[in-house]
Amino acid sequence: MKKTINIQNIFLVAMIAMACSCSKGIEERTDGLPPLNPVRADQDAGTWTPILLTGPTEFTVAAPISTASPDYRIQINEIKSMQSRMTEADKKLVEYWSAGAVLRWNEIMRELVALHNLPPYQNDDGTYPFPDPNNPLAYPLFPFANPPYAARAYAYTAAAQYDALVAGYYYKDEYKRPAPYVVDSTLQVMVPKTTLPSYPSEDAVVAGAAVEMLTLLFPGDQDFIRQKAEEHKKARMLAGANVRSDIEAGEALGRSVARKFVSRARTDRAGVAAGNQAVWTKLEEDTKARGEIPWISLETPKRPPMLPLFGKVRSLMLDSLTLVSLRPGPPPSTSSDQMKAETEEVYQAIKKASRDDIAIVHNWADGVGTYTPPGHWNAIAAEDFIRQDFSEVRWARNMALLNIAMMDAAIVCWDAKYTYFNPRPSQLNAAIKTSTGTPNFPAYISGHSTFSAAAAAFLGHILPEKAAAYSAMAQEASRSRLLGGIHYRSDCEVGLQVGTNVGSYCIQRAKTDGAD
User: For the purposes of burial, counting CB atoms within 10 Å of the CB of 352, is it exposed (0-12), middle (13-18) or buried (19 or more)?
Assistant: First the structure.
């Protein structure tokens, strides 16, 4: 009976967190952000290379009605009518969304990841239930947004938004319909004016793509997701930035492009990444056959390893042979003097940890209930991109390649983890106690190190003046895992190198996609 009560309590806590996270939590992040005012419009973005689309015209956008038509005048008057009834809440809505569509949807997604980054509680018989995408509101809630799941989710969403905007900017240039405030100079305008054509609406393109992707990834939150999309579209009309037909065309385009990503996501092998008992047993037996000590779950009762087949997920950019070529060599043997020395180093780091060391460990922990290490780097990137005044399409392109780099880092990292199935330091020395918990998957290589190095490498390309700072952040994130007793030095050092190698592919892509 006690375990049943615990499960119910966890479910209630999760639902309360959902209510908080999907309202006040997001709103609190909006204060003080200026409206997006790009230093360059990137009107040629319709010629940039998309990720998955065959080209910008793969999905057709019909020609808009004339700005001289009676129907267009009705749409202008609709905006004026909305503005005449504008409330303080409406003004806050405009202020919130004017900071940028890609930025805001990325923030919303980070909130959803944090909400769902909760491992299920065990059953009475000591087994663990798996979240069911067909019944997402039943316990355990779907998804369990662990780091690999989150990395893939961020990547698919950002890439869909980018491809949709490439198509959207193509049609903007094709039809060249001016913004409503250009057509009617008496219209109240609450956002910075731009020379960019308004049809289709870039904000609606982003919102349409976000709704499709996030509904797939977080199906239990679709009412909230749709509510945010409606608020987003309303804000653009209230601001005088788009008429209704701009928004309807943009939303339809965004949804169409995203559905192509949805179809791909359903067949990229992520759905079977959890494996089964036969897979888990074979990993342990194969490791013992090599004469090594295998990783075991350190939880009570033992939990199945996290996503042992994620290393076989299809990348959005790299082929399977390239991904395998990025696999590092093996870790030190568990019976070697090097492994003994590295285990002792971890023990001494824990034993002698300073206050600063402990602060570093917790700053980069990114564990249960957070938006994960990939989300941490999304937050770092967003904070820096805000200061750059990028256009929406440049925001989308940068976030897409950043997150594809981290998704590929997850694939390569998880491939290495389950190829070598290496034990955690506390398995080899029970005196090693972690302050942030021990992740439920093998040690080699460090996920934090791999994610961080991939992100730092790509961000250093986008903002070269900050390349050294990003590298230092990655080094600190990596070091935090040794200081926390979670990883050996070789896990961290090899993870950093692998992440850098992964990031280099996205840098090469950025150099040739037409945006640089």
Answer: exposed
